[in-house]
Amino acid sequence: MHDIRFIRENAAAFDQALKNRGLAPLSEALLSLDEKRRVAIAAHETALARRNAASKEIGQAMAQKDAVRAEALKAEVAALKDAIAGKQAEADVADAELRKQLEIIPNLPLKSVPVGADETGNVEVRRHLEPPTFNFAPKQHFELGEALGLMDFEAAAKISGARFVVLKGALARLERALGQFMLDLHTGQHGYEEIIAPLMVKDEAVYGVGQLPKFSEDMFHTENGFWLIPTSEVSMTNLVREEIVDEATLPRRYTALTPCFRSEAGSAGRDTRGMLRQHQFMKVELVSITTPETSLAEHERMTGCAETVLKKLGIPFRTVVLCTGDMGFASQKTYDIEAWLPGQGTYREISSCSVCGDFQARRMNARCKTKDSKGTRFVHTLNGSGIAVGRALIAVMENYQNADGSITVPEALRPYMGGLEKITKAN
Fold first, then answer.
1. Does residue 110 belong to any structural domain of this protein?
2. Model confidence over 371-420: pLDDT tens digits?
3. How far is CA 213 from CA 33, 104, 114, 207, in A?
């Protein structure tokens, strides 16, 4: 959510930032609505002040036994009552319309974000490990999983339809191992607090992180009014909704391993084979709540934490900064971490880490203050995949595949696999 006062004082910069995102200028229309709202509020306050003054004058006229003036003042007060109600309603309508416009405008990109129209404008900032070479043609994860008898898309389709999978045996355990490994790493070495939070949330929660009202079709909604979380960012970020937190407790760092649910409404025909784009998947999420001064450093730190997962797994990856045209709605700046997938012969996104500034905090009314300060200010929020478990499974399978179709278990995961070193075809 944007601050109309900022737009009032920085209209040209606001429009330029929107232009960098590929959007038309909006400040003129927004400020026109704002002026209408302010005029109505001023008229309401003027009428209210006059009513209060006239009410006092009635008492004075009565004390002076000036019945004619008293009756005239009473008539004026009665008329002002209707005027006050009308101006209040006018102000409320203008305020609601302004809010309706503001809540669908994306966050403004930071100056350090490259300007571009789409993913072709993203910029690589670093790379880890070179892609492995094989003396055979590497297969894609679904070819490997189906040949092992441990990945069943047909069974999932009978139960739930497209974009679901049934994992079995050692592959099911490998996915569980990945999630547990990430949680242990982030809580034990990176200082995140593990959270188990609701998977079903209210409108206010998804609105707070920017999913509503614009992206309702991307989520699943229950008949009794809940939304299934598209990521546990929703639940964890909302832990500070409508709170005033002590700045001494910041940063707050949360992590959770949860199922995530997405409709993939805009993905028809994309990644229809395999596990890359599913309606239900597991993900370890990272969320940070910080002061405004520390959010950018926290963004770099969070991205490093996600990268460490892949480093410890020995997965080649590159990190790119997304351009203005490829960023998410609530983001000021986003790093995507892309893992190398030998079966596809390309890098694919496995984590996104974003700093949102006070954009979400304004929607949630999440603020902070020091013990000595009288006023409050909005916190800054960050979120990132730490990382997507299903995609990590894909990366492990494809990078650690062998010529006979077996999969070597990375050393970092073997303690979580009961010492198993290789996954072979199910009996």
1. no
2. 888 899 999 999 999 999 999 999 999 999 999 999 999 999 999 999 99
3. 20, 7, 27, 7
Question: Of 234, 232, 231, 233, nearest to 202 (Cα)?
Answer: 234
DSSP 316: -
Same domain, 91 and 140: no
Domain that holds residue 32: 4-102
Residue 235: left if φ>0, alpha if ψ -120 to 50, beta else—which one?
A: alpha
> Residue 47 to residues 59, 86, 268, 351: CA-CA distances in angstroms?
19, 10, 56, 55
Structure tokens at 133: 């070479």
Give pTM, 2 decimals. Answer: 0.94
How many Å apart are CA 224 and CA 227, to the nearest integer? Answer: 9
Determine the Cα–Cα distance for residues 143 and 138; give it in Å rounded to an integer.
10
Of the candidates 337, 286, 342, 348, the residue with the CA atom closest to the CA atom of residue 307: 337
Q: What is the pLDDT of residues 379-389, one digit of tens each?
A: 999 999 999 99
SS3 102: helix
Please tell me whether residues 202 and 327 are part of one structural domain. yes
Cα(186)–Cα(388) distance, integer angstroms: 14
- Do 143 and 205 belong together in one domain? yes
Domain-located, residue 56: yes
Q: Which residues have CB under 8 Å from 156's CB, separation 6+? A: 164, 165, 166
Q: How many domains does the chain have?
A: 2
First to last CA, the chain: 55
123 and 94 both lie in a single domain: no
On whether the CB atoms of residues 244 and 367 are closer than 8 A, the answer is yes
Cβ atoms 398, 341 nearer than 8 A = yes
Residue 10 lies inside a defined structural domain of this protein: yes
Burial of 221 from C-beta contacts in 10 A (0-12 / 13-18 / 19+): middle
For residues 88 and 9, membership in a common domain is answered with yes
> What secondary structure letter does DSSP report for 424?
-
SS3 label, residue 346: strand
Catalytic residues: 262, 277, 349, 352, 391
